[in-house]
Amino acid sequence: MRNLTILDVQAATLPVAATPQHTLGPAICVDVVNKAVYALVNDGSGSAQLCSVQLDTPDSRATASEARPVCSLPFSLGSTGGALASNMQFLMERESVFFGLRSGDIFTVRVGPLGDSGEAELVGTVDSGIMACAWSPDEELLALVTGEARLLLMTQDFDVVDEFPLAQGQQGEEVAVAVGWGKRETQYHGKAGKAAALATPDLRRAGAADDGEDDGATRISWRGDGAFFAVSFVGPSGREVRVFSREGRLHSVAEPIEALKHALSWRPSGRLIAATERLGHRHDVVFFERNGLRHGEFTLRGCTRRVLELAWNADSSVLAVTALVDTGGAAPEVCVELWADRNYHWYLKQELRASSLPGGSLLSAAWDAEDPMRLHVAGAEAYVSVRLHAAADVAHVASELSNAAAVVVDGARLLYTPFRWANVPPPMALHSVDVPMPAAHVAFAAFGHGNDFAVLLADRRTVVLYECAAESLQGNCPAERGRVRLGEGVVAHQIAWPGHSSLVCLGLGAGSQQVVVAVDLSDLPEPTLATRVLDGSARVTRLVAVERPHSASPLLLLAAADGLVLEAAVDEAGAIDVTPLAQLPAGCVEVDAAVVESEGGPDAVVVVGRTERNQLFAGGNLLSSVCSSFYLRRDFLVLTTTTHFVRFVPVDAGLLTAAVSEDDDDSLRYDETRRRVERGSAIVLASPLGDSVVFQMPRGNIETVRPRALVLAAVRRALDARKYREALVNCRVNRIDMNVIFDHSPDSLMADWEEFVKQIDDPDLLNLFISGLRDEDVTVSMYAGTKAREVTRSAVVDQKSTNICRALRPVLQAVDDPRLMPSVLTTFMCETPADIPAALRMLAPLSTDERDSALTYLLFLSDVDTAYRAALGLYDLPLALLVAQRSQRDPREYLPELGHLNALSSEEYRRFKIDAQLGRPELAVTHLCAAYMECAAGAQSEGELWTEFTEYVDAQDMHRSAIRLLGGHRRFSDVCVLLGERQAERGEWSQAAASFLLGGASTRAVDAFVKAKEWRMALAVASEGGASAQTVHDTAVRASAVLAEHHLFLDAATVLLEYTERDEEAVALLVRGACWAEAQRCSLLRQRSDLVETTIRPGLLEAHGVMLEDVREIREAFATKLERLREVRATPLEVIAYSGAAEEEGALDNVDVMSDTTSMASRFSTFSATITNASSRMTGSTARRLSKKGRRKEERRKGRGKKGSVYEEAYLVDSLAKLVDRVRVHQSAVRDMNWALVGFGWLPAAAELQGLFVGVVEMVVGSAGFVFDEQRMQMRLDANGVAEPVPMEVNEQGMASQPKLPKPVLPGFAWKIEAICE
């Protein structure tokens, strides 16, 4: 789909005029490093002269210049005799020009970077002459054919490597082998019939026809990698082509064909060898494979008289055919035809005629070795450099009636395809337009609907205008509107069509100066021309007309080679005014512009350009450095990258600062700004207002896709314009989540449901929209858009689908259209949760047919079993039967069930059975209670119902509901007792006691209070109920025993003292509870001083001894663990880790050399006790994943804090914290005991205890800082059971720190009795 456009033409006048009748014109070679061209010319006296032309740099003016003589050469050029040049080439390593002469002499001329030259040096002579010679691409080998038909291979020092006869056999290394599954005699030969199968080919006749077109010369062509070369020569049986390897071995002999001619060129990519074949009715370019077999051809135009040479460009994309062509003049003209292939079709993309080039003649052409799109042409009087670029010629005007058309040039035939209506793959097209001569450039109109286009013909002086209506598939072919003749003084290279009555051309004028010409089309057939010479500092390479929105005058852009972009305008007087518009950082081969609307100011023009090095600029901003193609729409800049993505950049004020990242982040699942494409894809066009993008693949086929960005942009435009049906259909066709229709503007759509339903008017579309609703804002989670949102909101929207369904349902019902009943049902089913019962209620007023249809649709949306249960839940047995009949259930299952329910006489009991079956205990209890209330008192069924009621309530644990329902009923107490029994079974004694009280079961309530340790309530209830004194006494004894069992000694003693006479047991309980003061008080209050001597004093002495032992034990344990903690902290962490690893490795057999502990230890720094950021990478071969049992074992090891392990420090700190808690708890016990000891006069014992405990408290308080404030890291187990540091924690101030064990509350000295001297 791409056409070749001439970007620039540079010319240089050769110093000596040569006559075009010379058999061999001036030869040229190129120094690609120093940008110089060397030409071999005749000085007029027959002597040869070497001239140099310095190629203009990109920022210099392309005016005509003269070639500078370098030196005279010691040989002559002439048509008869003499030393005709066989080959001329620049050798980069030697910095010299090589000449191989037909006479056999080999000369080199050393040239410097600035053209400085020495004398020509004769480096050798071949006695028999040189018929042909060619250097390998790496300039290491020279292949040379002598006059004796021998082939020589020479090094770059001209040493002969090998020499052998050129015709050394008829078969090479790659001779074809028959594998035995077919014979020539059995194959189909078309019209020739079986006789052709039996005929023996006449090898002498092949290629031997002498029609005067074959010059008889030998040709050599190397493959691009230098591994093989082909030789075309005239042998005994005619012209043949042979392929040789780099080592000089015959590789293959080409298949003999009729009328093979002299032209030969091996495609640099190495796949094909091009030659020509002249048949009686046509002239073909034929191709051979490396093995010599023929591989296709294409036919040249019928006006081709003779092919002179073939030449591939550096990237093998274009084949230049130099030929004599009948162009309609008095005599055939030498032309260079540029052919390119796509989809197995060869297109004539450009024709360079001698008459359209500076100097008016064309004798030889050669491609640049570095720039694949630069062609060097030598004429009789001038050298010309032609820069080309391949780009698609497509429509750009953003119009609703735009055809989104593309024009492909194929010689004198234009292939026109409107992609809006037809996606016709090349080489076919929807329309084919014949033009008078090959087309040179195509430009679409930048006005109106943008469907018209203009064509510049190959003579560079004629422009044909075509107009195209906004068509459908049945539309007409583009019609010719008129022709424009530019005159003899202008040779145009590019054209633009900015307006109805104006046409602009860019080309060369008098003196090869660049000019821009404005043509007034209103004066056809003799238009008025206005010419402006471009005399700026840089060459202009692109002429582009760009549509300007809301304006009748498009932008006319002139892009220079240095990046300067000019705006051209034609004033009322017809003069062309050129003003600078933008400065791009580099010269661009593709340029476009967009008008960006700005708030509060004039619209800004943003110029976008792409360089040959795939850099894409927007103004001075580098958007991408890997852009392979782009297309500029009003809303998006669409570009493809060499990383095989298509990207979409919004066209707004941010375009001048945007940057296209090339990170292949697969986590961006819903990124609408990019999409993967096939490798090598290039944009042909993006529909100016549509949602499609047309790509061309490297092999030539096209693919049309609808990217999410363009589809969503079209959906958003439709929603903003309230075109709801268009937006919905677009989402459906392109698989866009339909939630975007609501989420784009929720408030607007909520107020416009009536218009929404009116436009859609299609139950299927409405059902699709409603059923796709989710409680999610897809404009946040999926389609965030190409512009950043100012306010960030959550993607979760509570009750979104439910609210939409409830708002849309009344609108659907108000339409009163039976077709919309499925949509109404869908609103019920798409609520969260689905309201199936309400949907089933909608079926009641419908007719039988409508009800069956609606029920069928409803069962499509929901599970039939769920719908059956919902129908039962409505207590509508006929509806339940109707639903069951549409299910897969066995009728023998549901018919008896429904029949049994229908046979029940009580409606409330039937509903109870249904609710119980559906698992609705709350409703079931309600209906069962109502059924029980309906029973007559004393009836036989009352007892059965009550039994069923109690069993169901007890089974479903619905006692509270039963109590609520039976409030005030005579059965209320029975239900309360039933609840109390259930609570007693669960051990909820306090709740059970309350339930027994409500049920009037006071005895059972007392027992429950006793077990709940609520002794006051138990004795109060027992006393209030008129129980005997013995009963109260027994209750008190039982309560005391329960309290004592739970170590509530003070309460147990209080019960005995208040309700019994058991003073000894009460005092003993107080002594057990260490209530020394209370025990002494109660003894004296009951006048039982004997108990002080018999119970209290002995108990106090015994408790004193136990307390001393306990305090000493705490002191020793604390001191031991504190000392060990000091030792552990004195050892560096890495030492502990490595010692643990050694122990682990010694304890395990048959494990990997790298143990878990070793991997863990690698996380410690060698020079400090901190953790480094480096993490240990553990693979399946080095990591031993622990089982659950192993992890539990490792946790137990951590809890034990084994000496020397990495867990020991944390274990010691935790143990010391527990000891601190024990000391704090002992404070009150020591205080009470000391008071009792002082009261009995045992001062030494009190002093001993207080002194010992004071020492413990001082040790704890004094070491707390070291123990808890100087903690090092904690360890934990990772997924492999390896010890690793616990991650850092972030506090409220945002500071990270290593987590530590909390510091416990420290004991104080408030318990101390100051009067006691330790």
UniProtKB/TrEMBL annotation:
- Entry's Gene3D superfamilies? YVTN repeat-like/Quinoprotein amine dehydrogenase (2.130.10.10)
Q: Which keywords accompany this UniProt record?
A: Cytoplasm, Nucleus, tRNA processing
Protein encoded by which gene:
ELP1
For molecular function, the Gene Ontology terms on record are: tRNA binding
| Key word Nucleus present | yes
Under PANTHER family, the record lists: ELONGATOR COMPLEX PROTEIN 1
Which is one Gene Ontology cellular component term of this protein? elongator holoenzyme complex
Q: Where in the cell is it found?
A: Cytoplasm; Nucleus
- Residue ranges constituting the ELP1 alpha-solenoid domain according to the UniProt record: 708-900
Region annotated Disordered, chain positions = 1177-1202
- Family the UniProt entry places it in: Belongs to the ELP1/IKA1 family.
Describe the location of the ELP1 TPR domain by residue ranges.
Answer: 909-1081
Describe the location of the ELP1 first N-terminal beta-propeller domain by residue ranges.
1-368
Q: Which superkingdom? A: Eukaryota
Q: Which Pfam families match?
A: A-sol_ELP1, Beta-prop_ELP1_1st, Beta-prop_ELP1_2nd, HB_ELP1, TPR_ELP1
Tell me the organism: Coemansia spiralis
> Locate the ELP1 three-helical bundle domain: which residues?
1090-1259
Specify the pathway: tRNA modification; 5-methoxycarbonylmethyl-2-thiouridine-tRNA biosynthesis
- Please report the stretch or stretches of sequence annotated as the ELP1 N-terminal second beta-propeller domain: 408-684
Quote the function comment for this protein: Component of the elongator complex which is required for multiple tRNA modifications, including mcm5U (5-methoxycarbonylmethyl uridine), mcm5s2U (5-methoxycarbonylmethyl-2-thiouridine), and ncm5U (5-carbamoylmethyl uridine). The elongator complex catalyzes formation of carboxymethyluridine in the wobble base at position 34 in tRNAs.
**Protein's name according to its UniProt entry:** Elongator complex protein 1
GO BP, sorted A to Z: tRNA wobble base 5-methoxycarbonylmethyl-2-thiouridinylation
